[in-house]
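FW: tagging you since you asked about this chain on Friday. Here's the raw sequence from the shared folder, copied in full. Didn't touch anything.
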Amino acid sequence: MKEWLNRFAERVLQTFPGRTLFVGIQGSQGRGEATADSDIDVVVVLDKLSYEDLKKYETAISSLESRDKICGFISGREELANWDRTDLFQFYYDTTAVYGSIDWIRGYIANYDIRRFVHMGACNIYHACVHNAVHEKNPDALREILKQASFVIKAKHYLENKEYIKKNADLIPMLTGEDKPVLELLAEEKWKEDFDGSSKMLMEWSGNIINLL
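HL: got it, structure written out here
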């Protein structure tokens, strides 16, 4: 992946000479948790972004290996600077740099934004969990909801300890209370064994966060 990312960054830099401010990787590839089927969530920040730039970018990456797995985020700097601060928290801490830096983003993020991220995330998880338990009954959907919960737990840990832990396996031993068994549901794939029990735990966990924050 490191070699692929270097080729990707070189292609972007060649396509936008003097305009590329940042290239990075997010998601499971960036956290070192990817499988053979994982997407490649790349991040590209240009000085500014036009629709014509999007077409150039599309052409530039069209012949790259694993093109069908490439997804992610591309933006102009000004749009990113004015992005919703709640989203910026996860964006910054879940992004690993390949070229350039986005450290300037940290100055935009306050504790209020992180608490709001946790609360909004818990609300969305609660709603999705309840809907899935009653209407869909889909274990794969439950896994996606648990993935959302993992980001909320990482944000909660950051609020309490001022450190962001990217990998679930590294974070689990540091957790206490209800957060630990919820993250273990995802990390150890326990949701496959007990759909109702996992859904119940996730619903109660997210409900408690909603009521406390």
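FW: The chain is about 60% helix and 10% strand.
HL: agreed, and The chain has a mean pLDDT of 94.
FW: great, closing this out.
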